[in-house]
């Protein structure tokens, strides 16, 4: 599911061991059982908690709903001693063109070294446009949970 090419490019930007550990931890995360009362912030908190548990050596900071200037991210990961950063955008029930355009706008403004976009239960009609947008983006990895 995770983009191998994006992961390989990503390895060149940050400390290889840190990245492998982070990427492996992210791959192990699974959204909890979907339920109509679960909101996007529940999934974001679950993912952030999972990443914090996985980072036992405290070599990175995990910040929920980080924001700098006009760029925002659901989760930001900053490695100690590095200016590089990972942004994770998590979107639940992506259904409309305006939501898709907002997501793309957030991604475009992001100053991330690597951007992970995680979609949970999106409308399948939204995916082709998102795939076309990310086609030439080496630093974007898309994961879809339906």
Give the number of helices.
Answer: 5
The tally of beta strands, per DSSP, is: 5
| CATH hierarchy, class | Alpha Beta
Strand content is: 25-35%
Form type: globular
Largest sheet: 5 strands, mixed
Total count of domains? 1
* Order of neighbouring strands in the sheet with most strands: 1-2-3-4-5
The end-to-end distance, rounded to whole angstroms, is 12 Å
Structural class: alpha/beta
Give the SSE order as H and E letters: HHHEEEHEHE
Give a written overview of the molecule:
The protein has helices at 4-13, 16-28, 40-54, 97-109, 127-134; strands at 60-68, 71-79, 85-92, 114-120, 140-145. The chain is of the alpha/beta class. It has a single domain (4-30, 40-145), classed as Trna Endonuclease, Chain: A, domain 1 (3-Layer(aba) Sandwich). It has a five-stranded mixed beta sheet. The longest helix is centred in the N-terminal third of the chain and has 15 residues, at 40-54. The two termini are 12 Å apart. Residues 1-13 have low confidence and may be disordered.
């Amino acid at each position: 599911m995770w983009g191998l090419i994006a992961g390989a490019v990503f390895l060149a930007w940050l400390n290889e061991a840190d990245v492998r550990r982070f990427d492996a931890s992210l791959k192990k995360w699974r959204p909890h059982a979907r339920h109509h009362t679960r909101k996007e912030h529940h999934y974001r908190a679950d993912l952030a908690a999972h990443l914090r548990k996985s980072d036992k050596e405290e070599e990175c900071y995990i910040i929920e709903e980080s924001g700098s200037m006009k760029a925002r991210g659901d989760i930001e990961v900053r490695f100690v001693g590095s200016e590089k950063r990972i942004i994770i955008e998590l979107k639940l029930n992506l259904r409309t063109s305006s939501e898709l355009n907002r997501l793309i706008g957030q991604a475009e403004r992001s100053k991330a070294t690597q951007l992970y976009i995680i979609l949970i239960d999106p409308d399948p009609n939204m995916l082709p446009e998102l795939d076309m947008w990310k086609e030439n983006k080496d630093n974007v990895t898309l994961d879809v949970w339906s």
